[in-house]
């Protein structure tokens, strides 16, 4: 009798294992499309681009010859590419610093119990709205606003007596950079605010209650509790913003095409023009793309390691 029961139990386990294996097979089937698309549209193009960076493929040629690191030497000496690199970092820094400051301030206001602001959902939707507008639409709007000589901004400055004659904003290097930076700031500060607010709401409320009992003000709680515990979220925002800033393309290209004087020519606009305009220098575009990949990886690792080093030092000080 005991033998029959044991045999029945073993048979039941085998059936359950067989069903689980069948379910596992379906899991692989549903995962397969992602990997197929990833291999076809991400993995292969990336390695083909790396291959092209070591060739002389340009124009309408169909055969490529290996030239070693000559393309990397040429791109290093390319003054237009150097200017594109510096422009990219200038535009990113000018828009990211006010973006992160305002986002932290708004997140602090939205999560403050003492302020207890009303209509937070409406304001979050309002601040996030620019992020869902297409870049082409944004470029058209700002091109019209700052157009010369009869744009709304020029009309406002003239009617207010702030200028004597219309200003051609897009012929000024400084003004063009400021406008592009402002657009990037305006489009992304809402999303950054929502991410930071989510991070603040994830902090244990007991910490803030204990701080209030000890007599800490809201600002002291924010600087001594919120800011240190927000380091992972801040790191995420910084790295994603850095990656997005290095890949800035749509607004500079649609607004002025990179001008005036290549003042808003970014690395991606440089790559696009080299690959699809003029002489179709695919080898130069591929080399610039590889350099961009290396720069993105290096700066992301640098930021990540700097945050980790600071955290480890603070932990050691706390232990001592």
Structure description:
- 76% of the residues lie in helices and 0% in strands.
- The chain is mainly α.
- It has a single domain (70-141, 167-319), classed as MetI-like (MetI-like fold, Orthogonal Bundle), CATH 1.10.3720.10.
- α5 (135-145) crosses α11 (250-256).
- The longest helix is centred in the first third of the chain and has 51 residues, at 2-52.
- The radius of gyration is 27 Å and the shape is globular.
- The model has no long low-confidence stretch (mean pLDDT 85).
- It holds the Pfam family BPD_transp_1.
- It is a multi-pass membrane protein.
- The chain crosses the membrane at residues 26-47, 89-110, 122-149, 233-255, 284-307.
- Keywords: Cell membrane, Membrane, Sugar transport, Transmembrane, Transmembrane helix, Transport.
